[in-house]
Structure formats: C-alpha cells, structure tokens
Amino acid sequence: MRTSGGVAARHRESVLVIDPVARAEGEDIDGRQVLDAPGRRLHVCGRAAEGLAALDDIAPDLVVASLDTTDLPGLRLVEALRARWPALPVIAVTATPTVAGAVAALRAGASDYLGRPASPDALAAAVERALAAARATGAVVEAKVDGAERYGFTHPLSRSPRMIRVFDAIRAVAQTDATVLIRGETGTGKELVARAIHERSRRRSNPLLGVNCGVFPDTLLGAELFGHDEGGAHGRRAGVGGAGVFEMADGGSVFLGELATASPAVQVDLLRVLEERRFRRGATLVPVNARVLAATSIDLEAAVADGRFREDLYYRLDVFPITLPSLRERAEDIPVLLHHFLADAAREYELPAPAVTPEALAQVLRYRWPGNVRQLRAMCERWVIQCRGEPLRVEDLPPELLGAARPATLFAPGGALLFVDETVPLATLTERLTTQLERAYLHKLLARHAGHQQNTADAAGITRRTLYSRMKALGLEAKDYR
Q: Which is nearest to 313 in space by CA: 257, 263, 271, 278?
C-alpha cells in the first residue's frame, strides 16, 4: 500500500502484465512462475486500455507490457505508461525482437526489452533489476507522479496572476469534452496543460496520445492521425487495419502539437473530425471518440489572414482558448522555479543542489529566457552537474546569460525579492509588485496562524470572505499551512 507523499511502507510488490495473448486471469501466462513469485501480487490485463484504466487501483511496482497489443501497439503503450507514472519501471516484451526495437524501447523509457517467449532466467533477472532499481532510487513512492509538478507547473510554484488564471481555466474546462486551443511560445508548457486537462477529465482512464504535427512530412501526418488502408504506402505503424492516433485514443484525448503546420488536406480531415466526429479512410467512414487538445506557438489569426490556415477550422478549434505567458512575462516566478528545478535535478542526479549567490540570481533575472520554462529547467540540470554542491556564481553562468540586458532587480528588506521591469507601463509594474507583496504578506500571516482563516483575516484587518477571495486569486490554500 502506498503512502501519500513519501516512500511507501513495505508491502507485497505488485506486478501488472498487459498482454493480448494472456488468457483469463488464473490460467497460465508466459513467465507466471517468475512473475507470481512469493511476496508479489500478479494482475493480468489483455488490452492496453484495460491496463491503463487499472493503474490507479492496482498501483503496480512494475509493468510487463507487450508491444503487440492491438489497441495501443508498438511503443505507444510504453509511452502511455510513462506519461501516466513517470517513475514506474516497464519491461517491454515482443514476439518480434530486433536490435533497433530494443534501442527504441529503452529510449522511450522501458527499463528492459525481451523477446518472447523469454527464458525464466532472463525474465527473472529483468524483473529483479527493475524492482531493485526502483527500491534503490525511491521510485516506489506515491503512485501517480504529476509531470506538471516536476516541471514547476503548480500553484505553489507560481506567484503570477496570469498563471493562476491558467490554473483556473484548466479546472473549468477539464470536466467537459470541449475542444481546447492552447497558445504560447515554445517551452511554456503547452503539453503539460493538455496533460493536466486530460488527467482531470472523465477520459483520464483512457489514453492521451500526442502528435507533433511539425515533425511529420505532409504525406505521413495524415497516416499518423487517421491511419491507412492495410498494406498501404505509409504502413509503418503496426495498428490493426492501419489504425491512426484518433482510433488508438478511443475514449481518451488527442494532443495535436504545432497544429498550424498541418497541410491543407490534413486540415480538411481535422475539420471533419471536429464537425462530424468521424473521418474518411478510403471508402470507410471511421467514427471518432477522442477529445481534441490542440496547441500552437504561432499567430493563428495571421495564418488565417495569409491563407495558410483554414478559417472554419480555426473557429472549430478556438472553443476554449488558453494562453500561456512567457517566462519573461511571469518573471516573479523565476526565483522559486530556479530553486525548485535545482532541487529536482539534484535528486535526479544524486548530487547536492547548489546555493545561488545574489549576483548570479540577479543575472538570471535579467535574462529573457527565449526557451521559457523548458530552457530554465535544462539550465538548472547543467548547473547541478557543473557546480557539484559549490555555490552558483556569476562566473558559472553561460555567455548568453552574462550578456543579458534586463531591467534591474531590487532586494527588499526581509529578503523579499522584487522584480522591477522598466520596459512595462507603470500600471502593469505596480500590479505585479502589489501582487508579489500581497502574496508574501498573506503567506506569512497564514503560516503564523497555521492556516486558520478567521484568525488570519482578523490579523489582516479584512473579512474572511475577502481573505478567501484573495487566497484563491493568489493560489494560496489554507491546508498547506496546517
């Protein structure tokens, strides 16, 4: 049984097998004598969707996943498992093992790759390696690790009113099936927004499958999304009857990254999916039961005006828009994100997290971060490896940060860091600074009164209703202080 926020207490380790050739549970399966060893619990599912739906209930310590499932073939199942539980060990098995397949599986996050039928010794060794690594690194922890938290995409890690409005929008739209258009620069977290919406939706027990439209040639993107006639020219996917992403995500969600790069022909097919919930493949009309979460980093209105993007498709997509601010537009979040990412990378690489000198922090704040949160996280990983526990100083920063020319920062009494950006209007700057000070003030009061809202409101000289409203706007929760 897993605990809610720490290393699990010792328990019988649970193994989940997802395999289309597995017979009814209780009958024989390949390797049962290894997998169903004393001290373990074995669960068998014949379909990928069934296995994914059972994750939260079973809370497995290890998954043995077939790459030959009919409903989520190839590496799709491994990717779906890793997306749901990033720390979960997955052993990939296949009836057609190849060297290239092994490389691809390990890159996708599998802990091991075996051909079937695997010898008992090989399977036992792979299982023990996976479980031992999980125990040693503390991977057997809280069942569901939220990727959004890992990348600093949570309320406690944001002081920005704009980001708090994004969190509110995610909560508002998640329980509907509305199409969502997520806008923002590269690296702002568009895929994390899509994942947060899916994980809070009624479809969360089914797959969330993503396609980066920008990496596929025109001739292949359509086959990736809508499949192909069996034996067709683009039959590089192993899906039944050439199934595409929309069919494999049945009952779940499809994330379409950089949708604006799709060809006119694919845009027509996407419009049909959104309007009619089906698409045409050859002479067949294929029904669609998948929610569409689309993302773009370009100006879609300009693309429509230039004739590069269909206007009718734009309006079908723009049902519920969410716009993510760039990191330079939420500069008040940089200090807390910086320390969060340093601590996270230190845990990952088993190295001490470096302290940050005030001079280095000031320079980090002056940089414009064109790669946004993704770039900041990557830089923090570099610094953890580079510093080896020594403080991060200005001389440790790369040339692009040393040449940064951002407005100054102000270190206020008491250690509060205020970011003063002289490139914005005074009203905008005043709003940002007021928000920073108000959040710091209420944070300290809530901590002093252990989250008791009436006492906090009395100390602040406001009503409890006003306190609740301000806490909601600032992303503060009383339970965090109890």
A: 271
